[in-house]
Design goal:
With about 220 residues, the protein is an alpha+beta fold. About 35% of the residues lie in helices and about 15% in strands. The chain has two domains: about 1-50, no CATH class; about 105-225, Glutaredoxin (3-Layer(aba) Sandwich), CATH 3.40.30. The chain has helices at about 5-15, 50-55, 70-90, 135-140, 155-170, 180-190, 210-225; strands spanning about 105, 120-125, 125-130, 150, 175, 195, 200, 205-210.
């Protein structure tokens, strides 16, 4: 038993300080359990927590995610939006006009309004023919009561050609200058929704622009009535 004490003494004397790493020597005079260099009590010393684990990124237990699903989702969404745009434009696109305007001189739109067109368009044989509705015909008769009405301007070359053909055929007509006649301008823009001249009305038939063949056919039909 007497040999046990020296073993404990040697264990204490060989103590290394957990704070300053000083190894205690046999000749040190400090009390047992105290560091001779920094003076801490070995039993009460608690090391400061390290911050290194807190700075390390958290690692997921599963496989590392990639950006591929997100990119695929964005590409799919862009494709759907683009497809929807083209479908919408196709569905809501305005149909191609049945009646094509022929040689016309463009007017500066001044009083076109947003009225309902006063004529219907239907295929008669191989041609698309526009014909005035009864109410529109009555409206026209209030300021131009003539079988043939020409909506024109003084500077329009196609209007001059239309006048020449009607004069050569001996067809009487009412010539209305839409730049000088307020009623003609209103009817031309708001009712007929025309954006150019000439517009020729023969009976109930509407001719948009100058076309010699159509003008002769319409005049011939008027003569038969």
């Amino acid at each position: 038993m007497p040999g046990a004490a020296p073993a404990a003494t040697m264990s204490t004397m060989s103590k290394t300080c957990p704070k300053c790493s000083y190894a205690r020597k046999p000749e040190d005079a400090a009390a047992e359990g105290h560091c001779p260099q920094c003076g801490i009590v070995y039993a009460k010393f608690r090391p400061a927590p390290t911050l290194q684990p807190m700075l390390e990124p958290v690692r997921a237990s599963g496989p590392r995610p990639t950006s591929f699903p997100l990119m695929a989702l964005l590409a799919g969404a862009a494709f759907v939006l683009t497809l929807g745009y083209f479908v919408r434009e196709r569905v809501h696109a305005k149909p191609e006009p049945v009646l094509q305007a022929h040689k016309m001189s463009t007017l500066i739109k001044r009083d076109t309004g947003q009225g309902i067109p006063a004529y219907t368009v239907a295929h008669e044989g191989e041609r698309a023919v526009a014909r005035l509705l009864p109410d529109a015909r009555k409206n026209l008769a209030q300021f131009a009561n003539a079988p043939v009405v020409l909506f024109s301007t003084a500077w329009c070359s196609y209007c001059a050609e239309a006048r020449g053909l009607l004069d050569a055929a001996g067809v009487g007509y009412k010539d209305l200058d839409v730049e000088r006649d307020a009623d003609a301008l209103r009817y031309h823009g708001r009712v007929l929704r025309a954006a150019g001249v000439p517009v020729i009305i023969i009976g109930d038939r509407v001719l948009l622009g100058y076309d010699e063949t159509l003008l002769k056919l319409a005049s011939r039909d008027l003569a038969k009535k």
